[in-house]
Design goal:
single chain; mainly alpha; two-stranded antiparallel sheet; 6 strands; binds ligand 56B
Length: 373
């Protein structure tokens, strides 16, 4: 927690003390939804189309039911680790932590045959799946890539070791490799100093609160602190998007199906959609979010949109708000439906990936190089 930000939990405890109420820590909030609504209310380059959002809510919920989308969908992906596949829970937690520490920026300007890809299990994996494949391959080769001790060992884990872990089947290297090494180094240091050198203790420190775990990640690890203060949104509080902190919690919840010491979160519905570069593309394809002409041209021409810029923050935050409105519409039409922003997000991601594979993408995703997503 930086000095300038008030400690909301402490203030709540003081308020309860004065009011004579029992001293229980207030349930924390991540501030992401508040940030998303603020940016949406002050955006001029990204707008939401309510009719499309209503239609999308109906179509998404119907298809999620057809495909029986649930947390169990996570383990069904062949590359994801899972106790049912013989993986020890503590190793699964370490894998998910490592994966979401590095879960950013896989896009390439090269064609399908030339883009960065990982050869594993007789297949070439690209995008997010190239990350998962590379981690699985490294573990099978005896490289302790999910061990924080290894991350801190500058003799063992060098940039060339990491290049070997992510060696490509093509001439293109994985993007931002040096930045990924910095994330591993920092995470190793913080886990050593504060969480007995294992992500298990980080997860259990949240006392089954998803919001508290997100905030712990954001306040202790700078590489998870996906917050921004663009000049075009002048307000005291930074805009909190926290994409990788949130998807880490969501992956734990989905993997363990909301159960046990590493998967049970009583406030999991506080997690929002994860502001990456795929969901905005899918929401735009559905007509739910629409861009101003200059932004539309920039995205269509695959021009760089700088990280933390006005356009990029609008794209990411308005997408979060859009999925929140879709979630509310699904629950309005289907009271009691077991749907949250996580499952809607996972569905939208998997759907745009199917469209990419079938050549049905109607427009490119936006191009921003960053460690945040
Ligand atoms: N919002 C959101 N972003 C997601 C995912 C996933 C994968 N999640 C799996 C787990 C359960 C689900 O069923 C998925 O199978 C990756 N990403 C992000 O996308 C980008 C990679 O894109 P591409 O290069 O095209 O693969 C990159 O920023 C990455 O961080 C998601 O689910 N939601």
């Amino acid at each position: 927690m930086s000095d300038s930000e008030p400690d909301l939990e402490l203030l709540e405890l003081l308020r309860q003390h004065i009011a004579g109420k029992p001293q229980v820590a207030a349930e924390p909030d991540t501030g992401v939804l508040e940030s998303a609504e603020y940016v949406y209310n002050n955006s001029i380059d990204v707008a939401l189309d309510m009719r499309s959002c209503k239609n999308a809510a109906r179509a998404i919920y119907s298809q999620m039911q057809t495909k029986s989308y649930s947390p169990a969908t996570w383990a069904a992906h062949e590359l994801h680790p899972h106790p049912s596949k013989g993986d020890k829970p503590e190793d699964v937690v370490a894998f998910i932590f490592t994966m979401d520490l590095l879960n950013f920026c896989f896009w390439s300007e090269r064609g399908e045959e030339e883009r960065f890809s990982i050869e594993y299990k007789g297949r070439r994996w690209t995008g997010y799946w190239s990350l998962v494949a590379a981690l699985q391959r490294a573990l099978e080769e005896g490289i302790p890539i999910t061990d924080p001790h290894f991350w801190q060992n500058e003799e063992e884990l060098t940039l060339s070791t990491l290049k070997h872990v992510f060696r490509s089947a093509t001439s293109e290297e994985m993007p931002l490799l040096a930045a990924r090494l910095s994330c591993l180094r920092e995470a190793g240091q913080i886990l050593y100093e504060k969480f007995s050198c294992h992500p298990l203790h980080l997860v259990t420190s949240s006392n089954n609160s998803a919001a508290r775990l997100v905030n712990t990640l954001a306040s202790n690890f700078s590489c998870f602190n996906d917050t921004h203060s663009p000049p075009s949104f002048p307000r005291k509080k930074p805009i909190r998007l926290l994409k990788r902190a949130q998807i880490l919690v969501a992956d734990l919840w989905a993997c363990f199906e909301g159960q046990g010491p590493y998967g049970k979160f009583y406030d999991i519905d506080k997690i929002t959609m994860f502001a990456d570069y795929r969901i905005p593309q899918m929401l735009n394809q559905l007509g739910c979010i629409q861009y101003s002409p200059p932004l539309e041209t920039t995205v269509q021409l695959k021009r760089d949109i700088p990280s933390g810029s006005n356009w990029e923050i609008q794209l990411r935050a308005c997408s979060i708000w859009c999925v929140e409105l879709i979630r509310r519409e699904i629950l309005r039409e289907n009271p009691g439906a077991r749907v949250n922003a996580i499952l809607i997000d996972f569905f939208l991601y998997d759907t745009i990936k199917e469209m990419e594979n079938d050549g049905r993408e109607r427009a490119p995703h936006h191009r921003t190089r960053s460690i945040w997503y």
